């Protein structure tokens, strides 16, 4: 990696804490990813991106800012990338997946806040996240109570925080609320960037975002092969990088990876032996570098063949229709697309379990691991009915509730191994 010390210092990072973070991450990456066998050649690009995730990619963001483009950071797949691209902005994900500076986060948040929120605060307060510091605008959204209330605490810590209100029910009034919030968000983006959204710029944003989703969906569908042509860990990594990389370059790299995987499928080559127990993970999103559960699963003799998650199919399964003669027409198609997202913050939320059933059949899975973060009420509460409904239709389910610490890794492994034995039997 080149020397980015000056850039990090200019961004206001705490260089000592940042070095400590990078060294832990580098070690974890080596252990979890680079030690895997028979990885596709196409993963080299994603290894490179991860190696430069705080380096070259941040330099690109700084270059974009110097050209007058705005960097917009967000924490949820309800924030439409199409709109950010339509003002020539750069969209970056800010969710964090490491137990870092939780003691700092717990000075301003209750201890019983989910790790995803605590991690975002821990990173911000320790000044170790160049993405947060590079963002000209940060977008929060009213989803779970934890996020909703923590925006009030985050607001004074960042340059410009904008919060999108979201419906909680899939009703006509809910859809109207979403559309009017997206309309207000357009206004905010236009003010912040000084650029007006036009039909052409919005169609371009839709095209780029759809292409990215299509590439990731192509990758998902290749995972139905037995033997699996790619590990669940590597597929998750691609889904995580989705939120950071340049979208056009990312799309090309995923498609190149898929070309290689198609050849693997044709020749029957895989990363695990044919007949390895196949599972789907369903639940809370896993942000970089949250790799604990997939690493446990794939070191326990099972392979992950799909993620029903916002860092996975829930975030990309629908495309946005690009037909419309006005910005308002296109805002309707964007609203229609995002209103389908079946996050557990909605009540009721029946389509999520239907999606898991569909994935189970389509990807030839033998079991579902439901993953909730401790203190995440929406997913933890929904896990009971999801388990009951899946088991009723003969789908074996293992429910896991965990956090970002490594302390329970051994216990999780024992439970996953027992589950693998159950589905193999
Ligand atoms: S659309 S899943 S990205 S809200 S884990 S912070 S829910 S207490 S992340 Fe999410 Fe958008 Fe929904 Fe997807 Fe709250 Fe749960 Fe924490 Fe969570």
Characterise this structure.
The chain is of the alpha/beta class and 425 residues long. It is built from 19 helices and eight strands. The protein has helices at 5-10, 15-34, 43-51, 56-66, 81-86, 102-108, 115-126, 130-134, 145-154, 172-193, 199-222, 232-241, 247-267, 292-298, 313-316, 327-339, 350-362, 377-392, 409-424; strands at residues 71-74, 90-93, 137-141, 161-164, 277-283, 302-308, 367-373, 397-402. The strands form two sheets. It has a four-stranded parallel β-sheet with strand order 2-1-3-4, with helices on both faces. Strands 6-5-7-8 form a four-stranded parallel β-sheet, sandwiched between helices. The longest helix has 24 residues, at 199-222. The radius of gyration is 21 Å and the shape is globular. Double cubane cluster (BJ8) binds next to α7, α9 and α18.
């Amino acid at each position: 990696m080149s020397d980015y010390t000056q850039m990090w210092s200019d961004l206001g990072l705490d260089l000592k804490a940042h070095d400590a973070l990078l060294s832990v991450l580098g070690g974890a990456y080596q252990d979890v990813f680079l030690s895997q066998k028979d990885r596709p050649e196409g993963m080299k690009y994603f290894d490179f991106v991860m190696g430069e995730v705080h380096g070259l990619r941040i330099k690109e963001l700084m270059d974009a800012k110097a050209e007058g483009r705005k960097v917009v950071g967000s924490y949820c797949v309800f924030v439409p990338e199409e709109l950010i691209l339509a003002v020539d902005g750069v969209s970056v994900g800010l969710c964090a997946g490491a137990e870092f500076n939780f003691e700092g986060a717990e000075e301003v948040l209750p201890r019983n806040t989910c790790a995803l929120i605590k991690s975002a605060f821990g990173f911000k307060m320790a000044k170790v996240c160049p993405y947060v510091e590079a963002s000209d605008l940060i977008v929060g959204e009213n989803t779970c109570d934890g996020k909703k209330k923590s925006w009030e605490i985050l607001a004074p810590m960042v340059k410009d925080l904008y919060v999108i209100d979201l419906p909680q029910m899939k009703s006509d009034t809910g859809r109207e609320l979403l559309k009017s919030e997206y309309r207000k968000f357009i206004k905010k983006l236009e003010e912040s960037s000084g650029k007006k959204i036009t039909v052409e710029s919005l169609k371009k944003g839709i095209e780029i975002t759809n292409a990215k989703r299509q590439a990731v969906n192509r990758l998902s569908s290749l995972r139905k092969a037995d033997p699996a042509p790619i590990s669940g860990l590597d597929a998750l990594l691609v889904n995580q990088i989705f939120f950071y990389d340049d979208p056009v370059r990312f799309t090309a790299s995923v498609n190149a990876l898929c070309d290689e995987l198609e050849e693997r499928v044709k020749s029957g080559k895989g990363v695990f032996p044919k007949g390895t127990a196949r599972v789907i993970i369903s639940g809370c999103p896993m942000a970089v570098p949250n790799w604990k559960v997939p690493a446990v699963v794939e070191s326990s003799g099972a392979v992950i063949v799909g993620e029903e998650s916002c860092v996975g199919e829930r975030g990309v399964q629908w495309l946005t229709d690009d037909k419309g003669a006005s910005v308002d027409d296109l805002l309707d198609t964007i609203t229609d697309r995002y209103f389908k997202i079946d996050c557990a913050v909605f009540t009721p939320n029946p389509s999520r379990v239907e999606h898991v059933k569909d994935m189970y059949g389509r990807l030839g899975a033998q079991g579902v691991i439901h993953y909730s973060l401790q203190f995440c009420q929406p997913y933890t509460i929904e896990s009971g009915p999801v388990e009951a409904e899946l088991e009723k239709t003969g789908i074996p389910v293992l429910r896991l509730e965990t956090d970002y610490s490594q302390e329970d890794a051994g216990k999780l492994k024992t439970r996953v191994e027992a589950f693998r034995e159950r589905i193999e039997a």
